[in-house]
Specification:
The complex is a heterodimer of chains A (205) and B (469). With 205 residues, chain A is of the alpha/beta class. Chain A is 33% helix and 16% strand. The longest helix of chain A is centred in the middle third of the chain and has 13 residues. Chain B is 32% helix and 16% strand. Chain B has a 5-stranded parallel beta sheet. Classes of the chains: A alpha/beta (205), B alpha/beta (469). Chains A and B meet through helix 4, helix 6, helix 7, helix 8 and helix 9 of A and helix 2, helix 3, helix 5 and helix 11 of B. The complex binds iron/sulfur cluster.
């Protein structure tokens, strides 16, 4: 996993609440069996007309937000299905983080597994960043995971909460599976006491 | 710490494998369900790292999300879907995982076949790369959806590193009136607490109205916990649960059954155990519901109206206006005046035998409106056979419904069953997001009875006034 320490980048505002994973990556693009190549389909139904042409009126297609790597969005971001494709699409498009006042649980979980940061701020702070991203040209933010801080060059600076262990993994780009397997002895002893039910052990064709 | 524990805490504690200092606890997973859409990248990850599936016996796969619902044997014309299905077949073979494939008599939606085969049992931890895994909580298990990285994690370790979620009790007093179903209860709850009302929590549904639900009703209710933002939903196991599980193919037998039931009886929440959050509701206040917007919390009683936007706060107003615009509805319109083009009865929320029975009862002796195309998609091959044994398919066919093969179908339209732009659908599924059932399609979530009645009337209608024949 790609470590996340400090990131500075252009901010794009997505002024909507309840942005669901069907919107982030519509299901017709879930059929790929790879992890890559989803960025082109990000927010597809909002960005492209039915004939596949860019509709041009979606915020991310405005030239001033080209190359944005931080998304600011309304509450309950990432609700809906468990598809990790939503995170893959955001990351593949070039985003490293989303800032919102709340995230759906599974989306937030999936993010951490991909070195992608969900930054939780208060609703008024999110509103303020949204305003600055709209009004200030080339509006840049620094997300500093070491200090747990979001700041800009105009005096905005705030802390954000994050679970210590999640932070530790993100900072070091640690592979979860490897970490769990450090507990091989405990897993094995649990399994000795709790073998799979006999009905499931029977051979299957 | 108090000795009194909730159902959730008992299951959580029983599955703790390790609690490394400063890190998320590691819990053991009893059953891992797998399907074609969220697993290919996970199996790839295993291969790349040279890992095996740790517990093939605890891993069960099926194909459901993108398979066609035409008669089996019809070739799959969508080549990318076919590639995904082929990938699952190959992965199951390579890693020794049990697969209920396209041609299996037990194939079906993963959340329908788990319970039906007796794989789902009280007290278990169950995960699947699918958010509606919450369905299995109806049995008093801890069941939740995970992403693909976590699918890989469970395949490799049979464990998950998880923060302990908070607990929330939803206590529904009284009883549901005739025509008001588990689906309406679910929609009523989401309408009240909102689509993020239970974020970070595991819900336990309690109260008389919940206790008197059948297992199928409990599954419908727990299924939509995720639409309220919850990590999982659960109902304590009781005699209704045991009677359902008993005799199922993978259920414990003989002596094992007795000791399993003894254990399951110890699971319900202790009197006086504390929850982080409590919500109380009165079942008598609920009516048949219809969603009018683009998330499941945008809901109104069938006798009600689409909201006026004037009274709402800024961000709510904006999202309501966007939703109404997408849905092609004017503020204040009566729900019963909304005409429909399509009806979908199916999905892991409402495609079990009881759902089909209730829809058939409504459809019997009537005919689908000339301007409506209606389809019934049983949740599994087992449901389909049972329905056909009772003659339900004939009732549907006589009434002008299509009767199809099992799968997720138009719930998310990854197969050819989709809405055309602007088409309006009464659907028994769980999500009414923009484009969910097809780009530009407009979805209204309802119960199976309400969907069947809408198919016949051509618009939404209060099932409580229905003339059953
Ligand atoms: S029926 Fe719908 S919600 Fe259920 S598993 Fe299939 S796609 Fe998901």
């Amino acid at each position: 996993m790609k470590p996340f320490r400090t990131h500075r980048g252009l901010v794009a505002p997505l002024d909507r609440i309840n942005v669901d994973t069907d919107q982030i990556i519509p299901k017709q693009f879930l059929k790929r069996i790879e992890r890559t190549g989803f960025g082109q389909f990000l927010f597809y139904d909002w960005r492209f007309a039915a004939d596949g042409k860019k509709s041009g009126d979606f915020i991310l297609d405005e030239p001033r937000y080209a190359g944005a790597s931080i998304l600011v969005a309304g509450k309950n971001f990432g609700c809906g299905s468990s598809r990790e494709h939503a995170v893959w699409a955001l990351a593949d498009f070039g985003f490293r983080a989303v800032i919102s006042s709340s995230f759906a649980d599974i989306f937030a979980n999936n993010s951490t597994k991909n070195g992608f940061l969900t930054v939780l701020l208060r609703e008024d702070e999110v509103g303020e960043l949204m305003r600055r991203a709209r009004e200030v040209n080339d509006y840049q933010l620094t997300i500093d995971l070491e200090q747990c801080e979001v700041r800009d060059d105009q005096g905005f600076c705030t802390k954000f909460p994050i679970d210590d262990f999640v932070r530790h993994c993100l900072l070091n780009g640690l592979d979860d599976i490897g970490l769990t397997l450090q507990h091989e002895a405990e897993i094995a002893s649990y399994e000795t006491v709790h073998p799979p039910p006999s009905a499931l052990q029977a051979r299957h064709p | 710490m108090s000795a009194k524990k909730t159902l959730f805490e008992k299951i959580w504690n029983a599955h703790l494998v390790a609690q490394p200092a400063g890190r998320s606890p590691i819990i053991y997973i009893d059953l891992h369900l797998v399907h074609e859409v969220t697993s290919p990248q996970a199996f790839d990850g295993l291969r790349e790292a040279g890992r095996k599936v740790r517990q093939p016996a605890r891993t069960v796969a099926t194909v459901d999300h993108n398979i066609p619902t035409e008669p089996r044997g019809t070739p799959i014309t969508d080549l990318i879907a076919a590639r995904q299905i082929a990938a699952l077949q190959a992965n199951c073979k390579e890693f020794g995982v049990r697969l209920f494939d396209m041609d299996s008599p037990e194939q079906g939606i993963v959340h329908v076949i788990g319970p039906e085969l007796g794989l789902t049992q009280p007290g278990m931890t169950i995960v699947c790369g699918d958010s509606h895994t919450s369905t299995h909580g109806a049995f008093g298990s801890l069941a939740f959806g995970i992403g693909t990285s976590e699918v890989e994690h469970v395949l490799a370790t049979q464990c998950l590193a998880q923060q302990q979620p908070k607990t929330m009790k939803i206590d529904v007093r009284g009883r549901l009136a005739d025509g008001v179903t588990a689906k309406d209860l679910a929609l009523g709850i989401i309408g009240q607490i909102g689509t993020d009302g239970a974020s970070g929590h595991v819900i336990e549904y309690c109260g008389d109205a919940v206790r008197s639900l059948s297992m199928e009703g409990r599954m419908t209710l727990c299924n939509m916990s995720i639409e309220a933002g919850a990590r999982a939903g659960m109902v304590a196991p009781d005699e209704t649960t045991f009677a359902y599980v008993k005799g199922k193919r993978f259920a414990p037998q003989g002596k094992e059954w007795e000791s399993a039931v003894d254990y399951w009886r110890s699971l319900p929440t202790d009197e006086g155990a504390a929850f982080d959050k409590v919500v109380e509701m009165d079942a008598a206040q609920l009516s048949p519901f219809v969603t009018w917007g683009t998330n499941p919390g945008m809901v109104a009683p069938v006798t009600g109206r689409v909201p006026e936007v004037g009274s709402l706060g800024d961000s709510e107003r904006r999202s309501t206006e966007l939703a109404l615009q997408y849905m092609g509805l004017e503020p204040g319109k009566r729900i019963e005046d909304i005409g429909i083009d399509r009806v979908f009865i199916g999905s892991c929320t409402n495609s079990r035998l009881e759902d089909l029975r209730s829809a058939a009862r409504v459809a019997k002796g009537h005919h689908v409106s000339a301007k409506v195309r209606a389809m019934v998609v049983p949740g599994s091959q087992t449901v389909k056979r049972a329905a056909e044994d009772e003659g339900l398919h004939q009732i549907f066919l006589d009434a002008g419904f299509e009767w199809r093969e099992s799968g997720c179908s138009m719930c998310l339209g990854m197969n050819p069953d989709i809405l055309q732009p602007g088409e309006r659908c009464a659907s028994t599924s769980n999500r009414n997001f923009e484009g969910r059932q097809g780009r530009g399609g407009r979805t209204h979530l309802v119960s199976p009875m309400m969907a069947a009645a809408a198919a016949i009337a051509g618009h939404f209608t209060d099932i409580r006034d229905w003339k059953f024949r």
